[in-house]
Design brief:
Chain lengths: 417, 99
């Protein structure tokens, strides 16, 4: 094994492995409360702890690992600085753990201090990726989309830290809620959304072996998505209310429509029958969320007072973060993790001895079954939340935890192959 | 000295793990020149920025290393002409299941 391939492996592996541990911990906590936390008022210690464990500890960890894994592939150059990457990892990991403990035990000083450390990690990440992009001078829809995503992550961290500091210092007043709204738009839609969409411009054609496909929807998608984030965050910061927020959701729905059109173009020129079950599932997640967005737009017009209720926002959050972001990351992990491990363990053996194919690293039938069960459980949980049915929430929430942990176990098992 | 066809056959040991098809049947090997045991393989990849770039080129070197009559192996990756699916062998197309 060359030292170069070792170092290429370690950094993404650290992030992805930490993400997997966080994911299991999140579901262990959720199961221990029989998913009751999902029914509690979201803006409290339990809601903050669980949400940040999932979105920082798992989603952002895995996404950062994927960026470190794929950015040198996209740029065809090595990362700007691996040492910065390691400092980023430790700063972000210690910061997010302290932040969680601060939320859980209501220690407002911890929240501010550790949020600062987590933000330092995010800034180091942005510096590392930004410098790599500037040095490579390779500007296309993948790199521009990723650059915007990382910029939105920094804004998410800045707004989050400002709110964290507001707990002990109490200087934001009415702006605290407004910062929260912008924090959600920057983080959920800007960071996760744009990163997934822009990386799919590189990954989907590879997985489908699609050649000569049209790229006509890539730029409109990026413009619409950025427009949604900017207007959504602006609407929250200014307290402009539903009309402007509705326009942000309309732009986001249009971005998802462009995404489905892009996927259709990729599939029209595919030269491989199956991209893998995880990718098929993530493609359906895009289509499913587009349908949900269209329903949401109509719902907001017909029932504007219902739309802005906390219960509705919780369901919207679940639909987006679990129904699309999490299911997409889970789907992509069935490809990213085997590739990472295969390159590390078998890459050096190519041409010398027979090596397994990537599809032999993970059981695709189990991937399909467990992702479908996880998706179904998520729908049951959302129905329970929508109609205030505690027993349905418990069944859906517990099933979600059981099936998704079984799935992540399947993914983690790749490291034993 | 190893004949070019023997070298080409040997290169079938280098398999793209995502597609599970060897690089010869994928049509990635454009040219093989053997000048008194100094072998130059000109090849491409299915897409620029292929994550398997280094793995595949190292795989070519490893596959030919120690082959009788070969002293050195030089691998050049080119992007012109760009690879197209039409360059795949019939067996590769069949294996990928879209023809």
């Amino acid at each position: 094994m060359t030292s170069n391939s070792q170092t290429s492996f370690r950094l993404p592996f650290l992030f992805i492995a930490t993400g997997i541990v966080s994911f299991v911990l999140f579901h262990a906590l959720s199961l221990s409360s029989l998913a009751n936390w999902t029914m509690e008022y979201p803006r409290g210690p339990v809601g903050w702890t669980n949400t940040h464990l999932l979105v920082l500890g798992w989603g952002t960890m895995v996404a950062m690992g994927a960026v470190y894994q794929l950015m040198n592939v996209v740029l065809q150059k090595d990362l700007y600085s691996r040492p910065i990457g390691y400092v980023h990892y430790f700063s972000f990991t210690i910061g997010f753990i302290g932040l969680l403990l601060g939320f859980a035990f209501g220690r407002i000083i911890w929240i501010g201090a550790f949020a600062s450390l987590a933000l330092l990690g995010i800034i180091l990440f942005a510096w590392n990726i930004g410098a790599a992009l500037l040095h490579a001078k390779l500007w296309n829809t993948v790199t521009i989309g990723a650059a915007f995503a990382v910029a939105y992550l920094v804004l998410t961290g800045l707004t989050g830290l400002t709110m964290g500091l507001d707990f002990p210092l109490n200087f934001l007043g009415v702006w605290h809620d407004r910062f929260l709204g912008a924090h959600l738009w920057f983080g959920a839609v800007g960071w996760f959304g744009l990163l997934i969409a822009s990386f799919s411009f590189k990954l989907l054609p590879m997985f489908y072996l699609s050649h000569g496909h049209s790229v006509r929807w890539e730029k409109p998608l990026l413009i619409l998505w950025n427009g949604a984030v900017v207007i959504g965050a602006f609407a929250m910061l200014t307290g402009a209310g539903l009309p402007l927020l509705w326009i942000a959701f309309l732009l986001l729905a249009a971005a998802y429509a462009a995404y489905t059109c892009y996927i259709k173009d990729v599939m029209a020129k595919k030269h491989k029958s199956s991209p893998g079950e995880g990718i098929i599932f993530s493609v359906w997640a895009v289509r499913g969320f587009l349908v949900f967005m269209l329903f949401l737009l109509v719902f907001a017009i017909l029932f504007p007072e219902q739309f802005t209720r906390t219960e509705s926002i919780v369901i919207l959050g679940w639909a987006y973060l679990w129904g699309w972001v999490a299911l997409t990351i889970l789907g992509y992990m069935s490809k990213i993790v085997p590739f990472l491990w295969w390159t590390h363990k078998y890459g050096v053996l190519v041409g010398k001895v027979p090596t397994p194919s990537l599809s032999q690293m993970i059981n695709e039938r189990y991937v399909r079954a467990l992702l479908h069960l996880t998706g179904t459980a998520m729908l049951v949980l959302m129905l329970g939340l929508a109609f205030s049915l505690p027993i349905v929430v418990v069944i859906g929430g517990c099933a979600l935890s059981i099936f998704s942990v079984a799935y992540i176990g399947l993914v983690a098992n790749v490291f034993l192959k | 000295m190893a004949a070019v066809e023997l070298i080409r056959e040997q290169l079938k040991a280098v398999i793209d793990p995502e597609l599970n098809v060897n690089i010869v049947d994928l049509g990635l090997v454009y040219d093989i020149v053997n000048e008194n045991g100094d072998v130059k393989v000109t090849m491409t990849l299915t897409t620029p920025g292929c994550p398997l770039h280094t793995t595949m080129t190292n795989g070519v070197r490893a596959a030919l290393h120690g082959m009788e009559g070969i002293q050195s192996v030089d691998v050049e990756v080119v992007w012109s002409p760009p690879w197209t699916p039409a360059m795949m062998s019939e067996s590769a197309k069949e294996r990928l299941g879209v023809y």
